[in-house]
Specification:
Layout: E1 6-11, H1 15-26, E2 31-37, H2 41-50, E3 57-59, H3 62-66, E4 73-76, H4 83-91, E5 95-98, E6 108-109, H5 122-133, E7 140-142, H6 150-160, E8 169-177, H7 183-191, H8 194-197, H9 200-210, E9 215-224, E10 239-246, E11 251-260
Parallel strand pairs: 1-2, 1-4, 2-3, 4-5, 5-7, 6-9, 8-11
Antiparallel strand pairs: 9-10, 10-11
Helix pairs in contact: 4-5
Length: 266
């Protein structure tokens, strides 16, 4: 008897959403991509060629997709500003995977001038966590892959066992391959900026190494637009450096870039 396949839907078919969709369609033996959602016409045209011909049902309304009969899991890869809302809607019915969701990363900061909005809002972040805890029979996962990397896990285990001591400085980077097409300029309209777009993985890693109870004491950041000056209209940069100081000791140094000619670098 052939093993049963998990019926999966993909929300968002942009740069990463398309990769997730093709991964479930062609490279995940125990999963079956049955539906996909996008409100974007160009993404929809891509889906008609690469997904619909394989039997994937396409939707332009997210709520309609998550009501599809037999659906068991949803991958959320839409713009970051709707991650929290879509996570909560999906997890009321099916297991949920949110790709690199900043809505689940609630950094505690004691500085009274630090006000955030959208999916960065800590209250909204907590609402996603609370909704997941209320549904223990479902799986809710956030796409932070570095915690599954063997080298990082060895380092954490050795610190946890006090074999090599505790972390005092964490230096981490995420650098995207140079894309001269202007994609990142338009992407910056909704991405939240290079730090939450690229360095969210590094922030997650620092919190893991320093401890999830870590509280931010101070933050400093600088950035430049070396190759894509158009990013300035969205108050974004193509190279950024951020330094985060934590109460109780610990400094995190983050570097991000969108101009790596050789390819992605972490």
């Amino acid at each position: 008897m052939a093993p049963r396949k998990l019926k999966v839907a993909c929300a968002g078919l942009g740069r990463m959403g398309a990769r997730h969709a093709l991964h479930f369609l062609n490279r995940t033996p125990r999963a079956e991509l049955v539906a996909a959602f996008t409100p974007d016409e160009s993404e929809l045209q891509w889906a008609r060629t690469h997904l619909e011909q394989s039997g994937v049902k396409l939707y332009t309304e997210y709520d309609e997709m998550i009501r599809q009969k037999g659906l068991e899991a949803v991958v959320i890869a839409t713009i970051t500003t709707v991650h929290a809302e879509q996570c909560i809607k999906a997890m009321k019915a099916v297991s949920t995977f949110c790709a690199k969701s900043r809505c689940l990363l609630g950094l505690k900061c004691t500085h009274p001038s630090k006000k955030v909005s959208g999916s960065n809002n800590q209250t909204k972040s907590q609402s996603v966590v609370d909704a997941a805890k209320a549904l223990p029979h479902l799986k809710v996962t956030c796409g932070f892959p570095r915690g599954f990397d063997a080298s990082y896990r060895v380092a954490w285990s050795r610190m946890d066992s006090d074999d090599i001591g505790r972390a005092s400085v964490c230096r981490s980077q995420t650098c995207d391959k140079l894309d001269p097409s202007g994609f990142f300029v338009e992407y910056a309209r909704h991405s939240g900026g290079i730090f939450v777009d690229c360095n969210i993985h590094d922030i997650d890693l620092a919190l893991w190494f320093f401890g999830q109870g870590s509280i931010v004491k101070s933050v400093a950041a600088v950035g430049i637009t070396a190759v894509q000056p158009e990013l300035r209209k969205y108050k974004d940069v193509d190279n950024g450096i951020g330094i985060v100081e934590f109460w109780g000791g610990g400094i995190a140094y983050f570097y991000s870039s969108r101009m790596m000619a050789a390819g992605n670098m972490i």
